[in-house]
Structure prediction request, 123 residues.
Amino acid sequence: MGLWNGGRFLNITFVEGGEELLDRVAPLWEKLNEHHVGISTFFKEDLGKRTFSQRNQQWIQKAKHGFLRIDLAMEKTSDKAIGYCVTVIHEDYGEIDSLFVDETFRKNGSRKLPYLIAVGLAR
Prediction:
């Protein structure tokens, strides 16, 4: 899939998987956590102490009675993860637990990227 972003055309591919993709989520989750620390009024200290390893374990624990699904948006030319959606799927419902798109890919035509990642759940 191609998207226009800041004067350049992005070739983006979507990858679907499970726990094996968590390492690819880590750098993006760290950016998301930094963002939350920066805007939080009441939980800044708690969020600042949170690690990806802790969050990872929470997702794995939540998925014990279902399964963990990870959708990644990857820039083809660099094989870099630019967005993700972590979902816990249970027997009769699913819950988007975390969704993030790198800020450099949120402008112009790529602003629909979070939507495209989340809609991947319907595939």
The beta strands are 2-5, 8-17, 67-75, 80-89, 94-101. The two ends are 15 Å apart (CA to CA). The longest strand covers residues 8-17.
